[in-house]
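Hi C.,

You asked whether I'd gotten around to modeling the 80-residue construct. I have! Everything is below, sequence then structure, no commentary in between.
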Amino acid sequence: MTDKKKELGRKKPYRIYKLFAENSPMKTVKNIRFYLQKYKKDKSSVGFTITSSLKSMGLVQRSNGNYILGKKYELLRKKS
């Protein structure tokens, strides 16, 4: 990961955007909240795809401890 990405990271999670939900594998805000709650209880209770999607949406910390939006969601955020 580059230094630029580390600078862009936040210490707090991003909001759950409806636009992000519609373009994610989970499709609805309700499903995102469900899987986020399930992930927080037990990290191994959700699959790899859900975990990586939550990280990409900035809802779960990356390995460096920051919340970073993925490229897909960064572009969606700029459009709206």
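If it helps when you're writing up: Residues 12-79 form one domain.

Thanks,
B.
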